[in-house]
Amino acid sequence: MNQLIQERLRARGPLLLIPDAVLLPEGVMELYAVVVSAGSFEAVGPTEELERAHPNLQALRLPGHLLMPGFVDSHHHLTQSFGAALAFGEPSEIFRRVWVPLEGALDEESAYVAAKLAALESLRGGFTTVTDAGTRADVDTDVVACAARDAGIRCVLGLICDDAHEGADSAAVLERAEKHLAAYGDDPLIHPSLAISIPEAATNATLHATGRLATEARAVVQMHVNEHLAAVERSLLRHGLRPLEHLHSIDALGPHLLAAHTTLLSPREVSLLADTGTAVSYNPVASAWKGNAVAPATTLAERGVRFGIGSDGTRGDGFRLADAAEFAQRLTYGLATGDSSCGAGWTWLEHATAGGADAVGLGGRTGTIGVGMAADFLLVDVSTPELALSRDLPWELVRRGNRDQISAVFVAGRLRLWHGLPVDWDGPALVRRAAALARTAVARAPITRAHPTSTAARAAATARPPAARTTTAHPRTQAGGIPAQNAPARNRSTTQ
Protein backbone atom coordinates (compact mmCIF):
# COMPACT_ATOMS: atom_id res chain seq x y z
CA MET A 1 0.00 0.00 0.00
CA ASN A 2 1.31 3.43 -0.95
CA GLN A 3 1.66 6.76 0.85
CA LEU A 4 -1.64 8.05 -0.51
CA ILE A 5 -3.48 5.16 1.10
CA GLN A 6 -1.69 5.85 4.38
CA GLU A 7 -2.82 9.47 4.29
CA ARG A 8 -6.42 8.44 3.68
CA LEU A 9 -6.24 5.87 6.49
CA ARG A 10 -5.06 8.62 8.85
CA ALA A 11 -8.14 10.73 8.16
CA ARG A 12 -10.18 11.35 11.32
CA GLY A 13 -13.58 11.12 9.62
CA PRO A 14 -15.58 7.96 8.82
CA LEU A 15 -13.86 5.37 6.61
CA LEU A 16 -15.38 2.83 4.26
CA LEU A 17 -12.71 0.14 3.92
CA ILE A 18 -12.90 -2.58 1.29
CA PRO A 19 -10.19 -5.22 1.75
CA ASP A 20 -10.01 -8.52 -0.11
CA ALA A 21 -11.50 -10.26 2.93
CA VAL A 22 -12.62 -9.68 6.52
CA LEU A 23 -12.01 -12.16 9.34
CA LEU A 24 -15.31 -12.53 11.24
CA PRO A 25 -16.17 -14.99 14.05
CA GLU A 26 -17.77 -17.30 11.48
CA GLY A 27 -14.70 -17.28 9.25
CA VAL A 28 -13.00 -15.41 6.40
CA MET A 29 -15.57 -13.43 4.41
CA GLU A 30 -14.72 -12.24 0.91
CA LEU A 31 -16.51 -9.30 -0.75
CA TYR A 32 -17.05 -7.76 2.68
CA ALA A 33 -16.38 -4.22 3.89
CA VAL A 34 -16.48 -2.20 7.09
CA VAL A 35 -17.32 1.37 8.06
CA VAL A 36 -15.18 2.83 10.85
CA SER A 37 -16.52 5.89 12.65
CA ALA A 38 -15.82 7.55 16.02
CA GLY A 39 -13.47 4.77 17.08
CA SER A 40 -15.86 1.88 16.42
CA PHE A 41 -17.22 -0.28 13.64
CA GLU A 42 -20.40 1.44 12.47
CA ALA A 43 -21.18 -1.22 9.86
CA VAL A 44 -19.87 -4.60 8.74
CA GLY A 45 -21.33 -6.44 5.77
CA PRO A 46 -21.27 -7.26 2.06
CA THR A 47 -19.43 -4.65 0.06
CA GLU A 48 -22.31 -3.80 -2.26
CA GLU A 49 -24.70 -3.27 0.64
CA LEU A 50 -22.34 -0.93 2.48
CA GLU A 51 -21.56 1.07 -0.64
CA ARG A 52 -25.29 1.59 -1.24
CA ALA A 53 -25.93 2.47 2.40
CA HIS A 54 -23.06 5.00 2.56
CA PRO A 55 -23.02 6.86 -0.77
CA ASN A 56 -21.41 9.89 0.90
CA LEU A 57 -18.25 7.92 1.80
CA GLN A 58 -15.49 7.44 -0.72
CA ALA A 59 -14.57 3.77 -0.57
CA LEU A 60 -10.94 2.96 0.14
CA ARG A 61 -10.01 -0.31 -1.55
CA LEU A 62 -7.22 -2.35 0.03
CA PRO A 63 -6.21 -5.00 -2.52
CA GLY A 64 -4.24 -7.98 -1.29
CA HIS A 65 -5.21 -7.37 2.33
CA LEU A 66 -7.15 -9.12 5.08
CA LEU A 67 -8.85 -7.01 7.74
CA MET A 68 -8.75 -8.95 11.02
CA PRO A 69 -9.10 -8.24 14.76
CA GLY A 70 -6.01 -7.06 16.58
CA PHE A 71 -4.40 -9.54 18.96
CA VAL A 72 -5.07 -9.30 22.70
CA ASP A 73 -2.10 -10.02 24.97
CA SER A 74 -3.70 -11.40 28.12
CA HIS A 75 -0.59 -11.25 30.29
CA HIS A 76 2.30 -8.77 30.11
CA HIS A 77 4.75 -6.89 32.35
CA LEU A 78 5.40 -3.67 30.44
CA THR A 79 8.14 -2.33 32.72
CA GLN A 80 10.23 -5.50 32.32
CA SER A 81 11.19 -4.83 28.70
CA PHE A 82 14.74 -3.84 29.61
CA GLY A 83 15.33 -7.41 30.83
CA ALA A 84 13.73 -9.38 27.99
CA ALA A 85 17.16 -10.51 26.80
CA LEU A 86 17.97 -11.92 30.26
CA ALA A 87 15.15 -14.46 30.36
CA PHE A 88 16.39 -17.22 28.07
CA GLY A 89 16.74 -20.70 29.52
CA GLU A 90 16.44 -19.65 33.15
CA PRO A 91 15.01 -22.03 35.78
CA SER A 92 11.68 -21.37 37.46
CA GLU A 93 10.81 -18.42 39.71
CA ILE A 94 13.02 -16.17 37.60
CA PHE A 95 11.18 -13.18 39.08
CA ARG A 96 13.20 -13.47 42.29
CA ARG A 97 16.55 -13.16 40.50
CA VAL A 98 15.75 -10.93 37.52
CA TRP A 99 12.42 -9.09 37.48
CA VAL A 100 12.18 -7.84 41.07
CA PRO A 101 15.76 -6.46 41.07
CA LEU A 102 15.38 -4.96 37.60
CA GLU A 103 12.10 -3.16 38.23
CA GLY A 104 13.49 -1.96 41.56
CA ALA A 105 16.26 -0.17 39.65
CA LEU A 106 13.86 1.86 37.46
CA ASP A 107 13.16 5.53 38.05
CA GLU A 108 10.20 7.39 36.57
CA GLU A 109 11.81 8.06 33.19
CA SER A 110 13.15 4.55 32.72
CA ALA A 111 9.83 2.99 33.80
CA TYR A 112 7.98 5.15 31.25
CA VAL A 113 10.44 4.37 28.46
CA ALA A 114 10.47 0.63 29.28
CA ALA A 115 6.67 0.50 29.18
CA LYS A 116 6.44 2.49 25.96
CA LEU A 117 9.11 0.29 24.37
CA ALA A 118 7.07 -2.81 25.28
CA ALA A 119 3.95 -1.15 23.85
CA LEU A 120 5.79 -0.38 20.61
CA GLU A 121 6.95 -3.97 20.25
CA SER A 122 3.41 -5.16 20.90
CA LEU A 123 1.94 -2.85 18.27
CA ARG A 124 4.56 -4.02 15.77
CA GLY A 125 3.46 -7.58 16.49
CA GLY A 126 -0.22 -6.86 15.87
CA PHE A 127 -1.38 -6.48 19.47
CA THR A 128 -3.98 -3.80 19.91
CA THR A 129 -4.53 -4.61 23.61
CA VAL A 130 -2.00 -5.51 26.30
CA THR A 131 -2.77 -6.60 29.86
CA ASP A 132 -0.20 -5.30 32.33
CA ALA A 133 -0.02 -7.27 35.58
CA GLY A 134 1.30 -4.32 37.60
CA THR A 135 4.75 -2.82 38.00
CA ARG A 136 7.10 -3.26 40.96
CA ALA A 137 8.97 -0.09 40.02
CA ASP A 138 8.72 2.60 42.69
CA VAL A 139 6.64 4.88 40.48
CA ASP A 140 2.99 5.79 40.21
CA THR A 141 1.00 3.35 38.09
CA ASP A 142 -0.09 6.28 35.96
CA VAL A 143 3.44 6.35 34.50
CA VAL A 144 2.63 3.05 32.78
CA ALA A 145 -0.79 4.37 31.74
CA CYS A 146 0.83 7.42 30.13
CA ALA A 147 3.31 5.23 28.25
CA ALA A 148 0.56 3.00 26.85
CA ARG A 149 -1.63 5.96 25.96
CA ASP A 150 1.22 7.83 24.28
CA ALA A 151 2.14 4.72 22.30
CA GLY A 152 -1.48 4.35 21.19
CA ILE A 153 -2.24 0.88 22.54
CA ARG A 154 -5.22 -0.30 24.60
CA CYS A 155 -4.10 -1.37 28.08
CA VAL A 156 -5.71 -3.30 30.92
CA LEU A 157 -3.64 -1.75 33.70
CA GLY A 158 -3.03 -3.69 36.89
CA LEU A 159 -2.31 -2.22 40.32
CA ILE A 160 -0.49 -4.62 42.65
CA CYS A 161 -2.41 -5.08 45.93
CA ASP A 162 -0.12 -7.42 47.89
CA ASP A 163 -0.47 -7.03 51.68
CA ALA A 164 0.89 -10.23 53.25
CA HIS A 165 4.39 -8.86 53.80
CA GLU A 166 5.63 -7.37 57.04
CA GLY A 167 4.56 -3.77 57.59
CA ALA A 168 1.79 -3.80 54.99
CA ASP A 169 -1.23 -1.57 55.62
CA SER A 170 -4.20 -3.51 54.26
CA ALA A 171 -6.58 -0.57 54.60
CA ALA A 172 -4.24 1.66 52.60
CA VAL A 173 -3.84 -1.05 49.95
CA LEU A 174 -7.60 -1.28 49.44
CA GLU A 175 -7.98 2.50 49.42
CA ARG A 176 -5.44 2.71 46.61
CA ALA A 177 -7.28 -0.07 44.81
CA GLU A 178 -10.58 1.82 44.90
CA LYS A 179 -8.94 5.00 43.62
CA HIS A 180 -7.20 3.11 40.83
CA LEU A 181 -10.43 1.52 39.63
CA ALA A 182 -12.10 4.93 39.53
CA ALA A 183 -9.23 6.82 37.90
CA TYR A 184 -9.74 6.05 34.20
CA GLY A 185 -13.48 6.17 33.67
CA ASP A 186 -13.27 8.53 30.69
CA ASP A 187 -10.07 7.13 29.19
CA PRO A 188 -10.67 5.42 25.84
CA LEU A 189 -7.51 3.29 26.06
CA ILE A 190 -6.81 2.57 29.74
CA HIS A 191 -8.91 -0.03 31.59
CA PRO A 192 -7.94 -0.38 35.27
CA SER A 193 -7.63 -3.73 37.00
CA LEU A 194 -6.21 -5.04 40.26
CA ALA A 195 -3.39 -7.54 40.69
CA ILE A 196 -2.14 -9.95 43.34
CA SER A 197 1.34 -11.29 42.63
CA ILE A 198 0.59 -14.85 43.80
CA PRO A 199 -2.06 -16.12 46.25
CA GLU A 200 0.37 -16.20 49.18
CA ALA A 201 1.22 -12.51 48.64
CA ALA A 202 -2.15 -11.29 49.95
CA THR A 203 -4.21 -11.94 53.05
CA ASN A 204 -7.48 -13.80 52.66
CA ALA A 205 -9.35 -10.61 53.52
CA THR A 206 -7.65 -8.73 50.69
CA LEU A 207 -8.20 -11.60 48.25
CA HIS A 208 -11.91 -11.27 49.02
CA ALA A 209 -11.96 -7.47 48.98
CA THR A 210 -10.13 -7.09 45.67
CA GLY A 211 -12.49 -9.59 44.09
CA ARG A 212 -15.50 -7.63 45.35
CA LEU A 213 -14.09 -4.29 44.19
CA ALA A 214 -13.24 -5.66 40.75
CA THR A 215 -16.66 -7.24 40.34
CA GLU A 216 -18.38 -3.98 41.23
CA ALA A 217 -16.18 -2.09 38.76
CA ARG A 218 -16.59 -4.75 36.05
CA ALA A 219 -12.82 -5.20 36.08
CA VAL A 220 -10.53 -8.18 36.65
CA VAL A 221 -8.07 -9.27 39.32
CA GLN A 222 -4.86 -10.58 37.79
CA MET A 223 -2.91 -13.23 39.69
CA HIS A 224 -0.09 -15.67 38.93
CA VAL A 225 -1.52 -19.07 39.93
CA ASN A 226 -0.04 -22.59 39.83
CA GLU A 227 2.89 -21.37 37.76
CA HIS A 228 5.90 -22.88 39.51
CA LEU A 229 6.32 -26.18 41.34
CA ALA A 230 7.93 -24.40 44.30
CA ALA A 231 4.82 -22.26 44.80
CA VAL A 232 2.56 -25.31 44.61
CA GLU A 233 4.66 -27.05 47.25
CA ARG A 234 4.64 -24.01 49.55
CA SER A 235 0.84 -23.93 49.35
CA LEU A 236 0.59 -27.64 50.12
CA LEU A 237 2.77 -27.19 53.19
CA ARG A 238 0.89 -24.10 54.37
CA HIS A 239 -2.72 -24.99 53.56
CA GLY A 240 -2.75 -28.64 52.61
CA LEU A 241 -4.11 -27.45 49.26
CA ARG A 242 -2.66 -26.42 45.91
CA PRO A 243 -2.84 -22.64 45.21
CA LEU A 244 -5.91 -22.82 42.98
CA GLU A 245 -7.61 -25.22 45.40
CA HIS A 246 -6.85 -22.80 48.22
CA LEU A 247 -8.41 -19.91 46.31
CA HIS A 248 -11.52 -22.04 45.80
CA SER A 249 -11.63 -22.92 49.50
CA ILE A 250 -11.84 -19.23 50.42
CA ASP A 251 -14.32 -18.45 47.63
CA ALA A 252 -11.84 -16.34 45.67
CA LEU A 253 -12.38 -17.92 42.24
CA GLY A 254 -14.89 -16.51 39.78
CA PRO A 255 -15.38 -14.55 36.55
CA HIS A 256 -13.52 -11.59 38.03
CA LEU A 257 -10.25 -13.57 38.31
CA LEU A 258 -7.66 -13.78 35.53
CA ALA A 259 -5.28 -16.55 36.57
CA ALA A 260 -1.95 -16.23 34.76
CA HIS A 261 0.00 -19.29 33.62
CA THR A 262 -1.80 -22.18 35.44
CA THR A 263 0.86 -24.48 34.04
CA LEU A 264 0.44 -27.06 36.80
CA LEU A 265 -3.22 -28.09 36.88
CA SER A 266 -4.72 -31.25 38.28
CA PRO A 267 -7.92 -32.59 36.67
CA ARG A 268 -9.87 -31.31 39.67
CA GLU A 269 -8.45 -27.83 39.21
CA VAL A 270 -9.50 -27.80 35.57
CA SER A 271 -13.02 -28.56 36.79
CA LEU A 272 -12.80 -25.74 39.34
CA LEU A 273 -11.87 -23.28 36.60
CA ALA A 274 -14.73 -24.45 34.38
CA ASP A 275 -17.31 -24.50 37.17
CA THR A 276 -16.46 -21.05 38.55
CA GLY A 277 -16.01 -19.18 35.26
CA THR A 278 -12.48 -18.19 36.21
CA ALA A 279 -10.40 -16.98 33.26
CA VAL A 280 -6.85 -18.05 32.42
CA SER A 281 -3.93 -16.56 30.52
CA TYR A 282 -2.11 -19.33 28.63
CA ASN A 283 1.49 -18.18 28.12
CA PRO A 284 3.28 -20.74 25.93
CA VAL A 285 6.48 -18.84 25.15
CA ALA A 286 6.99 -18.08 28.84
CA SER A 287 6.79 -21.82 29.49
CA ALA A 288 9.56 -22.43 26.96
CA TRP A 289 11.78 -19.55 28.06
CA LYS A 290 11.37 -19.62 31.83
CA GLY A 291 11.30 -23.25 32.85
CA ASN A 292 7.58 -23.66 33.50
CA ALA A 293 5.37 -26.55 32.49
CA VAL A 294 2.83 -26.03 29.68
CA ALA A 295 -0.78 -25.32 30.57
CA PRO A 296 -3.21 -27.92 29.14
CA ALA A 297 -4.89 -25.40 26.85
CA THR A 298 -6.55 -27.93 24.53
CA THR A 299 -8.18 -29.44 27.61
CA LEU A 300 -9.21 -25.98 28.82
CA ALA A 301 -10.81 -25.30 25.44
CA GLU A 302 -12.66 -28.63 25.49
CA ARG A 303 -13.94 -27.99 29.02
CA GLY A 304 -15.13 -24.48 28.18
CA VAL A 305 -12.64 -22.68 30.40
CA ARG A 306 -12.32 -19.02 29.44
CA PHE A 307 -8.77 -18.21 28.37
CA GLY A 308 -6.61 -15.82 26.41
CA ILE A 309 -3.04 -16.13 25.21
CA GLY A 310 -0.33 -14.00 26.81
CA SER A 311 3.27 -13.15 26.01
CA ASP A 312 4.40 -12.54 29.61
CA GLY A 313 6.75 -9.98 28.07
CA THR A 314 8.72 -12.58 26.11
CA ARG A 315 8.22 -11.25 22.58
CA GLY A 316 5.54 -9.01 21.15
CA ASP A 317 4.54 -10.92 18.03
CA GLY A 318 0.92 -12.05 17.87
CA PHE A 319 1.36 -14.49 15.00
CA ARG A 320 4.36 -16.19 16.59
CA LEU A 321 2.49 -16.35 19.89
CA ALA A 322 -0.48 -18.09 18.25
CA ASP A 323 1.94 -20.49 16.56
CA ALA A 324 3.64 -21.18 19.91
CA ALA A 325 0.25 -21.79 21.52
CA GLU A 326 -0.53 -24.55 19.02
CA PHE A 327 3.02 -25.91 18.88
CA ALA A 328 3.38 -26.25 22.66
CA GLN A 329 0.14 -28.23 22.82
CA ARG A 330 1.27 -30.47 19.98
CA LEU A 331 4.62 -31.27 21.61
CA THR A 332 3.37 -31.76 25.16
CA TYR A 333 -0.04 -33.35 24.62
CA GLY A 334 -0.86 -33.92 20.94
CA LEU A 335 2.03 -36.22 20.04
CA ALA A 336 1.44 -38.40 23.09
CA THR A 337 -2.24 -38.85 22.29
CA GLY A 338 -2.16 -38.91 18.49
CA ASP A 339 -4.01 -35.58 18.27
CA SER A 340 -2.71 -34.25 14.98
CA SER A 341 -5.15 -31.33 14.91
CA CYS A 342 -4.45 -29.76 18.33
CA GLY A 343 -7.14 -27.13 18.00
CA ALA A 344 -7.33 -26.96 14.20
CA GLY A 345 -5.79 -23.52 14.00
CA TRP A 346 -8.97 -21.56 14.66
CA THR A 347 -8.76 -22.31 18.42
CA TRP A 348 -5.54 -20.36 18.82
CA LEU A 349 -6.59 -17.51 16.55
CA GLU A 350 -9.86 -17.14 18.45
CA HIS A 351 -8.28 -17.23 21.89
CA ALA A 352 -5.61 -14.74 20.77
CA THR A 353 -8.38 -12.27 19.87
CA ALA A 354 -11.98 -12.58 21.08
CA GLY A 355 -11.20 -15.15 23.78
CA GLY A 356 -8.42 -12.98 25.10
CA ALA A 357 -10.67 -9.92 25.20
CA ASP A 358 -13.23 -11.89 27.21
CA ALA A 359 -10.57 -13.20 29.62
CA VAL A 360 -9.24 -9.71 30.41
CA GLY A 361 -12.66 -8.17 30.96
CA LEU A 362 -13.09 -6.51 27.56
CA GLY A 363 -15.45 -8.98 25.93
CA GLY A 364 -18.04 -7.11 23.93
CA ARG A 365 -15.63 -4.19 23.49
CA THR A 366 -12.72 -5.50 21.43
CA GLY A 367 -11.30 -8.67 19.89
CA THR A 368 -13.95 -9.07 17.17
CA ILE A 369 -14.91 -7.30 13.96
CA GLY A 370 -18.55 -6.39 14.59
CA VAL A 371 -20.96 -3.47 14.72
CA GLY A 372 -20.45 -1.43 17.88
CA MET A 373 -17.10 -3.01 18.70
CA ALA A 374 -13.97 -0.89 19.08
CA ALA A 375 -12.17 -0.54 15.76
CA ASP A 376 -9.04 -2.37 16.92
CA PHE A 377 -7.84 -4.16 13.82
CA LEU A 378 -5.00 -5.12 11.50
CA LEU A 379 -4.53 -4.92 7.76
CA VAL A 380 -2.52 -8.02 6.86
CA ASP A 381 -0.86 -8.45 3.47
CA VAL A 382 -2.06 -11.84 2.19
CA SER A 383 -0.31 -11.48 -1.15
CA THR A 384 3.04 -12.55 0.35
CA PRO A 385 4.65 -15.89 -0.62
CA GLU A 386 3.64 -17.31 2.77
CA LEU A 387 -0.08 -16.58 2.37
CA ALA A 388 -0.87 -15.99 -1.30
CA LEU A 389 -1.63 -19.66 -2.01
CA SER A 390 -3.91 -20.00 1.00
CA ARG A 391 -6.49 -22.77 1.14
CA ASP A 392 -7.23 -22.45 4.88
CA LEU A 393 -6.35 -18.91 5.89
CA PRO A 394 -7.03 -19.16 9.66
CA TRP A 395 -4.69 -22.15 9.91
CA GLU A 396 -2.10 -20.44 7.76
CA LEU A 397 -2.22 -17.24 9.81
CA VAL A 398 -1.30 -19.35 12.84
CA ARG A 399 1.40 -21.37 11.09
CA ARG A 400 2.76 -18.97 8.47
CA GLY A 401 1.76 -15.49 9.57
CA ASN A 402 4.35 -13.06 10.90
CA ARG A 403 4.49 -9.42 11.85
CA ASP A 404 6.27 -8.44 8.63
CA GLN A 405 2.97 -9.06 6.85
CA ILE A 406 1.14 -6.44 8.95
CA SER A 407 0.75 -3.29 6.87
CA ALA A 408 -1.30 -1.26 9.36
CA VAL A 409 -2.44 -1.38 12.98
CA PHE A 410 -5.55 0.50 14.15
CA VAL A 411 -6.57 1.06 17.78
CA ALA A 412 -9.86 2.77 18.62
CA GLY A 413 -10.32 3.63 14.95
CA ARG A 414 -7.00 5.44 14.58
CA LEU A 415 -4.04 4.37 12.47
CA ARG A 416 -1.25 3.80 14.99
CA LEU A 417 1.38 1.88 13.01
CA TRP A 418 2.27 1.82 9.33
CA HIS A 419 4.64 -0.93 8.15
CA GLY A 420 6.12 -1.29 11.62
CA LEU A 421 6.58 2.38 12.49
CA PRO A 422 4.37 4.72 14.55
CA VAL A 423 2.65 7.34 12.43
CA ASP A 424 2.54 10.16 14.99
CA TRP A 425 5.64 9.75 17.17
CA ASP A 426 9.30 8.80 16.70
CA GLY A 427 9.73 5.08 17.31
CA PRO A 428 13.45 4.83 16.45
CA ALA A 429 14.24 7.69 18.86
CA LEU A 430 12.45 5.82 21.65
CA VAL A 431 14.47 2.67 20.92
CA ARG A 432 17.73 4.62 21.11
CA ARG A 433 16.74 6.18 24.44
CA ALA A 434 15.63 2.81 25.79
CA ALA A 435 18.97 1.22 24.87
CA ALA A 436 20.85 3.85 26.86
CA LEU A 437 18.57 3.68 29.90
CA ALA A 438 18.54 -0.13 29.87
CA ARG A 439 22.32 -0.34 30.13
CA THR A 440 22.26 1.83 33.25
CA ALA A 441 19.32 0.04 34.86
CA VAL A 442 20.68 -3.46 34.28
CA ALA A 443 24.13 -2.45 35.51
CA ARG A 444 22.80 -1.16 38.83
CA ALA A 445 20.23 -3.94 39.43
CA PRO A 446 21.40 -6.93 41.51
CA ILE A 447 20.33 -9.41 38.83
CA THR A 448 21.42 -13.02 39.18
CA ARG A 449 21.24 -15.45 36.26
CA ALA A 450 21.67 -19.20 36.49
CA HIS A 451 23.41 -19.42 33.12
CA PRO A 452 26.11 -17.43 31.34
CA THR A 453 25.56 -15.62 28.06
CA SER A 454 25.54 -17.79 24.94
CA THR A 455 28.99 -16.51 23.95
CA ALA A 456 30.43 -17.37 27.37
CA ALA A 457 28.73 -20.76 27.34
CA ARG A 458 30.18 -21.55 23.94
CA ALA A 459 33.66 -20.52 25.02
CA ALA A 460 33.39 -22.72 28.12
CA ALA A 461 32.08 -25.65 26.10
CA THR A 462 34.80 -25.49 23.44
CA ALA A 463 37.50 -25.19 26.13
CA ARG A 464 36.49 -28.49 27.74
CA PRO A 465 37.52 -31.93 26.45
CA PRO A 466 34.73 -33.48 24.35
CA ALA A 467 33.91 -36.13 26.95
CA ALA A 468 33.29 -33.47 29.60
CA ARG A 469 31.07 -31.19 27.56
CA THR A 470 27.81 -32.92 28.41
CA THR A 471 28.54 -33.43 32.10
CA THR A 472 30.07 -30.19 33.32
CA ALA A 473 27.52 -27.77 34.75
CA HIS A 474 27.52 -24.14 33.75
CA PRO A 475 28.79 -21.74 36.41
CA ARG A 476 26.00 -19.70 37.95
CA THR A 477 26.17 -16.17 36.64
CA GLN A 478 24.36 -12.88 36.84
CA ALA A 479 23.63 -10.54 33.93
CA GLY A 480 26.58 -10.26 31.57
CA GLY A 481 28.24 -13.46 32.81
CA ILE A 482 29.28 -12.15 36.25
CA PRO A 483 29.54 -15.00 38.80
CA ALA A 484 26.45 -15.10 41.00
CA GLN A 485 28.47 -15.31 44.20
CA ASN A 486 29.59 -11.73 43.53
CA ALA A 487 26.01 -10.45 43.18
CA PRO A 488 24.55 -8.43 46.05
CA ALA A 489 22.07 -10.35 48.22
CA ARG A 490 19.54 -7.52 48.63
CA ASN A 491 16.12 -7.21 47.01
CA ARG A 492 15.30 -10.92 47.26
CA SER A 493 11.51 -10.80 47.20
CA THR A 494 9.34 -13.88 47.82
CA THR A 495 6.47 -12.67 45.65
CA GLN A 496 5.98 -12.45 41.92
From TrEMBL:
Residues 448-496 are annotated as: Disordered. Residues 448-477 have a biased composition (Low complexity). Keywords: Hydrolase. Residues 67-414 form the Amidohydrolase-related domain. This is Amidohydrolase family protein.
